[in-house]
Write a structure and sequence with these properties.
With 428 residues, the protein is mostly helical. It has a single domain, classed as MFS general substrate transporter like domains (Growth Hormone, Chain: A). 74% of the residues lie in helices and 0% in strands. The longest helix has 31 residues. It is globular. The two termini are 31 Å apart.
């Protein structure tokens, strides 16, 4: 039986309760679990902002006078805010994970609040583009934290749990959105709530240290004005095939996944005639089951390997998406849960692989490439979906076709070497 580590006297009651609630393995220390709790809490509010755009899209479009036909292109442009993150994330391999992560959390919180004051479509788009830049950076480094700090045999569990807590921001968004018709200022107030990380910043800064692996390796690194180029150059020259694989792992799944989720609120309310409360119930109830996909995938991947579990989940996603957009009302919650389960579990494994396959000096850059391409893949998917809608296709006809691209992500997972249960330094 696995022996429990000595309790950390600095561990708060919240961390101890978190251990019981998550049934964390005994090999994970209180310090490691506390770090996960803090990083995941920040990530939750990052996902909240993303989810609010999905939930409140109909209200935002009506308030800012955005035509339905323009929505896919505007959403795609917003996601292109990930591009500047290419120049920001690699600094985590030079100045540290902590500085990049905390600055990203703070900037995103401020920009989310500013979004609530947008007066027109392009105000909204510009603010959300900038928000995406720091969302992408924060997300990339969050997964690096868990990969570097958790024991090898439980990295999948840690990364899966981080993803599960982060995606709970969608549930929080749905709960608050359910009362949108009764809130003063409607969707604007809901965006203002996204500024909570600014209030939490002092607490987060005290509880999120630098990773031990970066601290040990940083003495050999040189930092210059263009130090962000170094990790990217090393990534492309020393690990070109894996860099290409990570890029494809970012683009293909999210290309297929984005339409299913981005238009779920719009589709159920505008086409199916659901109320905001009905949509919120589906997201919270069925989505809660689906969120388990992150943790379940992590545990299964630790036990049976990243490749088999990840490929199976990603290959199953198009079936769930088709059932959601073409099935009857009674099947929608079940299809939603299956879609969340498959997508979150599959992407959690991809994130794990993107951080595990590279050495410390370029791990942040690799995670950044995956996260940025993940967002760009979503932009490409929305662009293609927009062209299909312009050509006369309906959402139920177009989205299942786009969702089929996730099968390409399943093939990428199978092409990577197995990383489960191996120390990062032993993976070649």
């Amino acid at each position: 039986m696995e022996a429990s580590p000595p309790p950390d006297p600095r561990a708060s009651p919240a961390v101890r309760a978190f251990r019981v609630l998550t049934r964390a393995p005994a090999a994970i220390s209180d310090r490691q679990l506390g770090l996960l709790f803090a990083v995941a809490l920040a990530a939750l509010f990052e996902e909240y902002d993303i989810a609010m755009l999905t939930s409140a899209l109909r209200y935002i479009a009506a308030d800012l006078a955005i035509a339905e036909g323009d929505l896919p292109d505007l959403l795609a442009v917003i996601r292109l805010g990930a591009v500047p993150a290419f120049a920001f994330i690699p600094y985590a391999d030079r100045v540290g994970r902590r500085r990049v992560f905390l600055s990203s959390v703070l900037a995103m919180g401020v920009l989310t609040v500013l979004t609530s004051f947008a007066q027109g479509p392009w105000d909204f788009v510009v603010l959300q583009m900038l928000t995406r830049t720091f969302f992408v950076a924060g997300t990339a480094i969050a997964f690096v934290y868990i990969a570097e700090e958790f024991p090898a045999e439980h990295r999948g569990f840690g990364i899966g749990l981080l993803g599960a807590i982060a995606v709970s921001g969608h549930g929080l968004s749905a709960v608050l959105f359910s009362g949108i018709n009764h809130l003063p200022h409607g969707w604007r107030l809901l965006y203002a709530v996204g500024g909570v990380p600014v209030l939490l910043f002092p607490w987060l800064a005290r509880r999120i240290p630098e990773t031990a692996r970066f601290a040990a390796a940083s003495s050999a690194m040189k930092v210059g004005a263009f130090s962000w180029l170094g990790p990217l150059r090393e990534l492309l020259t020393l690990r070109p095939r894996r860099a290409l694989g990570v890029a494809l792992a970012g683009v293909l799944p999210t290309f297929g996944i984005i339409g299913t989720f981005q238009f779920s609120g719009y589709y159920t309310q505008s086409v199916r005639g659901w109320s905001p409360q009905q949509y919120a119930v589906m997201v919270v109830a069925a989505g809660a089951f689906g969120v388990v996909g992150n943790v379940s995938a992590g545990r299964l991947a630790d036990r049976f390997g990243r490749r088999a579990v990840g490929a199976a989940l990603l290959a199953a996603f198009p079936l769930a998406a088709t059932l959601f957009y073409r099935g009857s009302d009674r099947w929608l919650p079940f299809a939603w849960a299956a879609a969340v389960f498959a997508s979150q579990g599959g992407r959690a494994i991809l994130r794990a692989q993107a951080t595990e396959l590279f050495p410390t000096a370029m791990r942040g850059a690799a995670s950044g490439v995956f996260t940025v391409l993940d967002v760009l893949g979503a932009a490409f998917g929305l662009f293609v979906l927009g062209r299909m809608l312009e050509g006369g296709a309906s959402l139920p006809a177009a989205i299942p076709l786009v969702a089929a691209v996730t099968v390409g992500g399943a093939l990428v997972v199978l092409a990577f070497p197995e990383t489960s249960g191996r120390e990062l330094e032993q993976i070649d």
